[in-house]
Each structure stands twice: as C-alpha cells, then as structure tokens.
Amino acid sequence: MAVQSKHANRGWWAAYVAMLAARPVLTKAATSAFLNTLQETISQVMTNPRQDRGIVLEKALKMGTYGFTIGGPLGHFLYAILNGVFSGTSLGHQIGQLVGANIFVVPIQNAVYLAAMALISGGDVVAEVKRGFWPLMKLTWSIFPVVQLIAIKFLRPDLWLPFFQAVGFVFGVYVSYQVKNAQRRRRLSDGGKRRSQPRSS
C-alpha cells in the first residue's frame, strides 16, 4: 500500500509539473486560488471562531478570486522577468535571483496582497497598505532569504516549488491572521471610543 501511495503521489506531482509546463499561468492561477481560499478560511476561523459561515465562505471565495485573477498571474510574470535577467544556473545567478526576488518581486506582491485584503474586509486600502507594508516586508525579509538558501543548498530544483508553496502557505495564514486580528482590535477600539464620546445637546 505504501509503495502504491508513493507511486500515486509521484503521478500527481508529474501531472502537476506537466500542467505547469503546458499552461503555466492557468496552473499557477488555479494553485493560488486554492491556497488563498484555504488561507482565508483558516485565518478567519482562527480570528473569530463564531463568525457566520456564510461570511467566512464569501470572504474566502473573494480571496480565491484574487488568487486566480491577480495573485497567481502576477507572481508568474514577475518571476518570469526575474528569471530572464538571471537566467543562468551558477551560484552568482542564484544569488542574483534571491536578491532580485526580495527587492523587486516581494514588495510588489506584498503591497498587492495587503490591498486585496483591505478591499475584501471593507477597509481603507491606502491606509491598510501604508500601515502594514513595512512590518510585512521586515517579516518577509527575516524569513524568506533563509528559506531560499535552504532550498538552494539542500533541495533538488524540482522540489523547490512544493517547498516554497508549503512555506508560503503557512506564512500566508500567519500574516492573514495577524492582519485580521489588528483590524478587529481597531474596530473594537473605534467602537468603544464612539460609545464613550458625550452626545451633543
């Protein structure tokens, strides 16, 4: 049974890699949609377990739509540009890709992600991006260079994608949870302040 399961997993992965080669944008968009939907569902339940399931589903589907229409395609084209600039396989090219990803790709992705979350939650997009951008960048820069170096040092190139997706998924759940918690605290604080203000006669 274990051998059959191992072969089945290889078959699924081979099929996924083949889809990436044949239809890279569509495959990455679908993957992003699935992961964003799951991330949003988990982070919402963690933030507010008593929230109405209909609201959870609605927001999760909106994040899935973001992943399919924006997140996945955006990541594909940004990394395509980066891979075009650093197209070799030498250590220098790999370091160039690492640095380029962190100063070019990641800031764009983080800003767009924060804007999408603000839109879905009904918040002020500009204010949310300004408030969350640098804390998110610092967190990203403290984690992902290490993750990328681990992949370069210890993993075969064909295993980089699932490794990055697994780490990115956990990171995405954490970031979404933290952002939602902060938004919830601000709403509660603003509501308390409004109730405590004296009414004008």
Automatic annotation (TrEMBL):
UniProt keyword list: Membrane, Transmembrane, Transmembrane helix
Subcellular localization: Membrane
CC terms in the record's Gene Ontology section: peroxisomal membrane
Pfam families noted in UniProt: Mpv17_PMP22 (PF04117)
Superkingdom of source: Eukaryota
Transmembrane segments: 63-86, 98-120, 159-177
Membrane-related topology note: Multi-pass membrane protein
Entries under PANTHER family matching the protein: INTEGRAL MEMBRANE PROTEIN 25D9-6, PEROXISOMAL MEMBRANE PROTEIN 2, PXMP2 MPV17
Protein name per UniProt: Integral membrane protein
